[in-house]
Write a structure and sequence with these properties.
Elements lengths: L3 E6 L4 E6 L6 E2 L6 E5 L4 E4 L5 E6 L6 E2 L4 E7 L8
Antiparallel strand pairs: 1-8, 2-4, 2-7, 3-6, 4-5, 6-8
Protein name: Biotin carboxyl carrier protein
InterPro entries: Single_hybrid_motif
Organism: Bacillus thuringiensis subsp. konkukian (strain 97-27)
């Protein structure tokens, strides 16, 4: 099966509030990966339109992050799946 490594970086300045995956997780398209509390207090969900295996979780709960901080690496399985 063909795969590709994808890096998921932050779009926000803030703090990691919660992490729902670990380095042995398989994730589906648009599955919630983590929550970020932005500096203005808003809570943002991190999810991506790919499915595959988590290969790296680069942050921990409570960690301050900046725009473009590497959050997660996913080995994209290149399988197209439907989502609701």
């Amino acid at each position: 099966m063909k795969t590709r490594m994808e890096e998921i970086c932050s779009f926000y300045e803030g703090r990691v509030e919660e992490i729902f995956v670990n380095e042995s997780s398989y994730v589906y398209e648009w599955e919630k990966l983590m929550m970020i509390r932005k500096n203005n207090g808003e809570l943002e969900k991190v999810a991506v339109g790919i499915s595959g295996n988590i290969r790296l979780v680069n942050v921990v709960v409570g960690q301050q992050i900046h725009t473009d901080t590497l959050l997660i690496k996913i080995e994209d399985d290149l399988v197209i799946t439907g989502c609701e």
